[in-house]
Fold:
Amino acid sequence: MYADRMLTKWVQDHKPRAAAMKDQPAFYRNLEQAMDLSRTDHSLFVAKPRWGDEVLDLTSSDFLSFSRSGRIREAFQEELARHENFRLSASGSRVQYGNYDYLLQIEQELADFHGAEAAYIAHSGYMANAGTVAAVPLPGDAIVYDEAVHASTHEGMKLSLASHQLSFRHNDADSLLEVLSSLKESHPAFVSGKSSILIAVESLYSMDGDLCPLDELVQVAKELFPLGNAQFIIDEAHSNGVLGPRGAGLVNMLGLEKEIAIRIHMCSKALGSTGGIVLCNKTIRDRLISNARFAIYSGAPSFPMVASMRAGYRLLENGEAEKGMEQIQNSVKHFLKTITAHPVWEEAVDEGILNIPLAEDYESIEHLTHIVPVLTRPKHELYLFFHLMINNINAYPISFPVVPKGKSRVRLVFHAHNGLDQAETLANVICEWAQEMLDIEAGKTENVMPSAARQVFAMKT
Ligand SMILES: Cc1ncc(COP(=O)(O)O)c(C=O)c1O
Structure:
């Protein structure tokens, strides 16, 4: 059973190692010692064994099931067959030999699909995001970012020449207004338009599953900076394929194509493919080619990679996203309906055993997203993860520092392949765990830890 393999490996990976390395070179021992700190409190990131389709998947990024169904593979093979004499490698960076016709043609097709002037393909979404945030701002400029943005944006900020980097409260237009106003008041160059501000947000936040109030944020920026020197960069990793017309994303859904300077789309999630896309105008594209280190000092994306991206977009063009989006909506609704109607739900929420922020008013939410966080007390996310795993359900625990302290959770990611029966099983298994926790709290048992956690911690490997 998958749970045995997974949990055995988890236990092995968390055993401290440095003490047994006395005779090894200090170089490696020092590294093991550093990792031991996280091993001891069970917070080390470890590679997980791959699971089969028989495990309930509440984790993978195959949101639309393009990968597991083989649809992306078929579209990819068709794309390869259309270009049987392809040259596999780009054989150079964009500023050298690597700027081949197919790559340019697909970039224009992607730009057209999303209603953008231009597009630029990067090896991954991470690189597209980090590289663009690093390359675009000039000295004297500012980057203002939502406090919940992804690691790739932070990486870009570290490398950027921007003179100011300020965060605003998550999804809070008033907080954005305060931060932008403070920049305006303290630096005349932002008033005269001589310096610019890049505002970094995500369309759908990957930890909370909430949507960015983009309309509102854009209004704030436009009113404060009528000269157009405050512009947005939006990471559409989690909305690509699952939001908007034909899965084109949040900006297309809101009709804000003309208002958003830079959109980063990822093909590694819903499309079941790989690669990142920067949607922008020609000025930004030229700035990337002339200034982004990933464009200048790295070989351009290879033909197979670009063909796999094209294949994913063919599926979107053919309306394949809509079917999956509807299935996801149905499963998420059914899950929320089942869990909130469960006899243990209210008590578990009142006692702080678990909570799902969206659950209260889910019926009035127009677009339920495929990400549903189940908030727990610190450390309990691990207990819930073990409980789900032992019940053949894969949903990962997320702890500090990936989420702020006190915001531990198990993150549920719904897919087109999660039917209503799976949604129901999931809700019931979570509530079974909540009941166990309530019993422990009420002293109805001698145990201080729930059964799945006891089982895992007792494992000898
Ligand atoms: C919000 C966000 N941005 C960027 C990335 C990176 O995308 P990619 O997998 O294409 O590198 C991820 C992937 O985990 C993500 O969740």
